[in-house]
Amino acid sequence: MKMTHLAAGIAATLIAAGPTLADTLHFPNLSYRTGPFAAGGIAFADGYADYFTLINERDGGIGGVPIRYSECETAYNTERGVECYQSVRNDNPLVLQPLSTGITYQLIPRTMEDGIPMHTMGYGRTSAVNGEVFNWTFNYPANYWDGASVIINYLLDENDGSLDGKKIALVYHNSAYGREPIPTLTRLSERYGYELLTIGVDSPGQEQGSQWLQIRRERPDYVVMWGWGVMNPTAIQEAANIRFPMENFIGVWWSGSQQDVLPVGAGAHGYKALAMHGTGTDYPIYEDLQRYVIEPGKYAGTGDEVGTVLYSRGMYAAMLAVEAAKKAQEIHGVAAITPAMMRDGMANLEITEELMVELGLPNFGPAFSVACENHGGSGAAMIQQWDANAREWNLITDWIEPDRELIMEMAMEDSLAFAAENAITPACLN
Amino acid sequence: MLYREAGDFKTSYTADSQTFPIRFDRYGYYFLLGFAFLVVPLIINDYWANAIVVPFLIYTIAALGLNILIGYCGQLSLGTGAFMAVGAYGSYKLMTAFPDLNIVFVIIASGVVTAGVGVLFGLPSLRIKGFYLAVATLAAQFFLIWLFTRQPWFYNYSPTGMISAPQREVFGVAVTGPRASAVAMYMICLCFLISLAWLARNLTRGTLGRQWMAIRDMDIAAEIIGVNPLMAKLTAFAVSSFFIGISGALLFTVYLGAAEAGEAFGIDKSFLVLFMVIIGGLGSIFGAFAGAAFLIVGPVMLKLLLVNTLGWPTDLAAHLEIMIIGALIIVFLILEPHGIAALWRTIKEKLRLWPFPY
Question: What is the DSSP letter of A325?
Fold first, then answer.
């Protein structure tokens, strides 16, 4: 015990020595560059960091106030996530982006209490779309239930409007993340008459032999996957091994990056995944990125992720954060915004097609607007397909709308149950 | 000179067999207790409580529990993570089923539930030993986690399978949920730790502890002198699981607030607590404290040093952290195979003789 106190003393001096800069906008990132989910985490974190660097280098910050970007390594582990949250929460974090559904669930009550906005883009708790209950949590532009619904709508389209008698298997990461789409897919199966088969894969997901044996036995017409990290390439490899037709294998947007298909090689040809935004380097913004970030060597990580799907997603997340900060500055008329002001900016965010063109990202993401009743944006997504020969993802559909009516109905049920459990009176903050 | 033992006479057997027979040690212990109860609550901040001290206290309870089983009774177990999960899910079910029940009783009750489950999975220990028993407890690890992730009753049919702790109060002060203050969390964990450490110390030097140690040293000989192996082994499993269950309940309710079995209580947690026991020192109460401090506080200190002070990239720091902690474990086990507790004993012997080493 004596050793502990000695160490405590040393560390107390270390913490006290850390500088706090008041005249910057602090964007922390609870990233993970280690562990079984690092393949996805690194690309996202690089994209997130590079966009902030670009804004600092090109525009001198947001509204003249420079951005301070910090990272805290969570390794996708919830205990580390708590530690990281504690280390940033008193440092004026404008928005948290934990990139983990498990950490999101832990942080939702804490951020509500501490008044720190959290953006869970395409992950996290789906029912956070109800901003009257989840005042501080945002999950625009799309969430898991949207994703599940978009996949079903796409399959309906493929099958001339009927999925009657079809068998759809859901291969999911056996965690809060992977289990999220089950209620939606179950509800939709009642409506459209397909049979749903749920097959869980335990984290991290390197062992999937028995799951794919089950798929081979059950012969589903389609396999839908909610996978992340090392689970994705393993599943695609297993699917290739049992010669499952790849065009009938659809992953969520977290299972559709280069890291997931490249290890499988030619076997992954034809694999499909959801896309919540465009990908590749064919956008005007990359000229600026090249000039201000990559050529001067100011890129995050090793710089080899530029243009991949998850890099684009990190960049998109940072772009939405910067736009929300601009909106907050506009609403409150101050440049050095606080987390509470940032929340107002996020709650009134409006992304139009003209704005996307102006930012150098034409047709990259959907146009949407956020309101207190809807923290979830539009929910639309596209389908992309992997071309193993050209080694690139091709978008094969336009934006597909989800069944928002059903999703909002389910989200209302879930969020009101949360409100009742935690004695929250649903109300808008502004 | 540090230890002045002159004039420190014992006039009764009670005085002679007390936990800290040396006066200097005893005062040090009182001082530490006073410091922990009176000074730390005044100076502790949120980061310190949440990131370092509270997990340290909670894992120390788990290490104490496993130390009873492995260090005192010699029964190898790899099911610690699962038993912590039993404590966590037990407290969740109790909290949601009886919202008015005080959280202290909820946590103790989840310890009792875990003790029952521990006895059940301890039954094979009557027939199998050593590594084979470790494999049997490994089965507990996988079975229980499967149960908690696949049986919706355990997580109250929540769509994601996450369990989250509602707010609960002790004497009107919130100790769980997001409104709980750092001091409240620290105090409840400290109270549990001190009372359980006191219990462990007194159990291990009483009849029960001696029976456990007899079984550990040679079970056939123990049986011949009249120790009932059934009772001894199962009580060790029960007491150990009780401790581990309480630690799991505290980890979930006070520290994490939300958890899922596979992620928070996986096999790596079993190994983490096992390493704490081995590095701290088998069969030593102090060892549990030292081991938990080494493996919980050490990595955070390293992170603070490398990232916050030296400004290194987080991924490099995370990798280095694994390497440094791993290297330290090897160095420790080579230099002192009996753990930090044995090292401390050696230091103490030297201090008692210093400055005249002979």
Answer: H
Q: Which residue bears the tokens 């049992």?
A: A242
Which amino acid is it at B98? F
Q: Which CATH number fits domain A23-142+280-377: 3.30.1330.10, 3.40.640.10, 3.40.50.2300, 2.60.270.50?
A: 3.40.50.2300
Across chain A, mean pLDDT equals: 89
Nearest to B289 among A1, A18, A179 (CB): A1
Q: Which of residues 284-343 of B touch A (CB under 8 A)?
A: 286, 289-290, 293, 297-298, 300-301, 303-305, 307-309, 313-315, 317-319, 322
Angle at B148 between CA A197 and CA B263, to 5 degrees: 90
What are the tens digits of pLDDT across the range B72-83? 999 999 999 999
Binding-face residues of B in 1-30 toward A, CB within 8 A: 28
Strands A195-201 and A167-173: parallel
Within 10 angstroms of residue A100's Cβ, the number of other Cβ atoms is 28
> CA distances (Å), A221 to each of A64, A171, A183, B331, in order?
55, 13, 20, 56
Q: CB distance from B166 to chain A under 8 Å?
A: yes
Cβ neighbours of residue A158 closer than 8 Å, sequence gap 6 or more? none
What architecture (CATH level 2) is domain A144-275+381-403?
3-Layer(aba) Sandwich (3.40)
The conformation of residue A143, written as its DSSP 8-state character, comes to -
Residue A294 pLDDT class (50, 70, 90 cuts): very high
pLDDT of residue A15 exceeding 50, the answer is: no
Beta strands in chain B (DSSP E): 163-164, 169-170, 173-174, 258-259
Contact A110 B35 (CB under 8 A): no
Q: Per-residue pLDDT tens for B231-260?
A: 999 999 999 999 999 999 999 999 998 888
pLDDT of the residue at B8? 80
Q: What is the pTM of this model?
A: 0.90
Structural domain spans, chain A = 23-142+280-377, 144-275+381-403
Inter-chain CB proximity B35 and A5 less than 8 Å: yes
Count interface pairs A-B at CB distance under 8 A.
Answer: 138
In A330-349, the residues whose Cβ lies within 8 Å of chain B are none
Do domains A23-142+280-377 and A144-275+381-403 share one topology? The answer is yes
pLDDT tens digits, A41-84 = 999 999 999 999 999 999 999 999 999 999 999 989 888 898 89
> Does B178 touch chain A if contact means CB atoms closer than 8 Å?
yes
CB < 8 Å from B in window 148-187 of A: 174-176, 179-180, 182-183
Residues 9-68 of A with CB under 8 A from B: 10-12, 14-15, 17-18, 31, 33-34, 38, 42
For residue B130, what pLDDT is reported? 84
**A113 at interface of B, judged by CB pairs closer than 8 A:** yes
Residue A16 has pLDDT above 70, yes or no: no
Name which of A34, A110, A179 is nearest B318 (Cβ-Cβ). A34
User: What is the C-alpha to C-alpha distance for residues B292 and B56, in angstroms, rounded to an integer?
Assistant: 6
pLDDT grade for A9, boundaries at 50, 70 and 90: very low
Structure tokens that stand for A152 in this block: 């079903």
Q: Is any Cβ of chain B less than 8 angstroms from the Cβ of A72?
A: yes
A171-229 pLDDT, tens digit each: 999 888 998 899 999 999 999 999 999 999 988 888 999 999 999 999 999 999 999 98
